[in-house]
Amino acid sequence: MAELTLFGYQAGNSLLYRFDSRFKLLFLFLLGIGTMQANAWPLALMTLFCFGLMRITGLPVLSVCRELRYFFILLALIFVSRTLTTPGLPLLTLGDLVITRHGVYTGIIVCWRILLIIGLGLLFISSTRTSEIRAALVWLLEPVPAIPASRVATMISLIVRFIPVISNRMRETDAAQQARGIGNRKNPLYRLKKFVIPLMQSVFRDADKLIIAMESRCYTEKRTTVELSAQKNDWIGLFVVSGVCLLAILL
């Protein structure tokens, strides 16, 4: 049975849910720029800001960390590569491998930035319906020439909709492999093969079912979108987020 996942819309009525989806996309863009330009102290302030938003939204931090546990492996690889490839004052020497102080610092900063952007994206996905995301993307892309706004928006909204589906399939596949004792095999390539192939098969099967359902309902890209309306709170939020990003860049 599929478990609940945080990689999808979570029903709620907090302040973040009441923002216009167009403004939330702009918030995510501005905070992403500020995060990529920020150093240690600004990152700490933006992390507190992100934790505050999670608390307002009702997302438990421990559950978020548990959902991202596999992503931490990728962050560890990024950190190790940074520590070994960044020149600077040696901190530790292990044969031909030299770990530098600057490499450790940049590795922490890079992983911190990536993790913070992932957290901000998770906040956006959990507080915005896919129909609202599609409507915001259509509104933003329509002025751009040579881009089919409705088609691109539909594709992106389907990708967002499939994130929790893939997460649930990963859990089901992992549980099935553990029940068959495959997790006890010593060969990591064998375990990876037995995990990835069934996972991809189930995901593609779900995608085929979705396509058939959309075709049977005569779904087209020309559909009535959600009506969007900017309110006073949206402009106040834009002012606050712009100030946070400006402080993160200048500090």
Short description:
This protein has 251 residues and is mainly α.
Describe this structure in words.
With 251 residues, this protein is mainly α. The N and C termini lie far apart (48 Å). The protein has 2 domains: 1-128 and 232-251, no CATH class; 130-225, no CATH class. The chain has helices spanning 21-37, 40-57, 61-67, 71-85, 101-127, 130-141, 149-179, 188-216, 232-250, and strands at 90-94, 97-100.
Oligomeric form: single chain
DSSP strand tally:
2
Gyration radius, to the nearest Å? 21 Å
Distance between the termini: 48 Å
Helix content: 55-70%
Report the structural category.
mainly alpha
As residue ranges, the low-confidence spans are none
H and E string: HHHHEEHHHHH
Mean pLDDT: 82
Number of domains: 2
Number of helices: 9
Determine the strand fraction and express it as a percent band.
Answer: under 5%
Please list the strands of the largest sheet in the order they lie side by side. Answer: 1-2
Q: Mind summarizing the main beta sheet?
A: 2 strands, antiparallel
Instruction: Give the overall silhouette.
Output: globular
Topology:
Layout: H1 21-37, H2 40-57, H3 61-67, H4 71-85, E1 90-94, E2 97-100, H5 101-127, H6 130-141, H7 149-179, H8 188-216, H9 232-250
Helix pairs in contact: 1-5, 1-9, 2-5, 2-9, 4-5, 6-7, 7-8
Question: What are the salient characteristics of this protein?
Answer:
9 helices, 2 domains, two-stranded antiparallel ribbon, single chain, mainly alpha, 251 residues
